[in-house]
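Chain A, query sequence.
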Amino acid sequence: MTTASAPSNFHQAELDKFDELAQRWWDPAGPQKALHALNPARLGYVAQRVALRDAAVLDVGCGGGLLSEAMARAGARVTAIDLAPNLLKVARLHGLESGVKVEYRQTAVEALAEERPGAFDVVTCMEMLEHVPDPASIVRACATLLKPGGHLFLSTLNRTPAAFALAIVGAEYIARLLPKGTHQYRDFIKPSELARLLRDAGLAVEDVSGLLYEPWRNAARIVRRTDVNYLVCARKPE
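Chain A, predicted structure.
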């Protein structure tokens, strides 16, 4: 399903870039190799803080559906949205192959917030905020979509020299774990800045944790240091 009136909180070049990766999105040795490694840690972070079984979950910026399917396998009723049509096509096809049921929609989160306010127990938005012109608009829409008492989970990159060195120079240019141009340093977000956006949206921050990718074992784990990639859990008051 497509929402024609979606607001334009996206860079077309970003959508095109990720659409080009669609055909190999589910290849664990392909261009999204690091994302495959991050996924179990991301799922674990969410599952430790909320009960996914029978929960109404929204995955914002779902890409090819890695986290969406993982949460559905854990028993959640998952709606997943993205604006990249080729990625959604791949996500739907993979769902048919895997038998994992996810409702995929091509729509902006702001448009869905107008349509279904207060509809979800859990909203996830992973590795997306650093790719949009207006992250605050995304956060506000996610807050609107949550039921009272619901949880929002976000992950993004910190704007630090360490993040520049590892996520851009190391991952894109030296190790070539990601396609060149995947990230722009100016778009990285400090945890304090994200916390302010969450408070402005009426949410309370419950946790901030680091997400460390270890390329030598192609795996990720939750850590205390947040100077590169980090996760945030926030809650909507009852």
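Helices lie at 12-19, 33-47, 66-73, 85-98, 109-115, 135-145, 161-174, 191-200. The mean pLDDT is 88.
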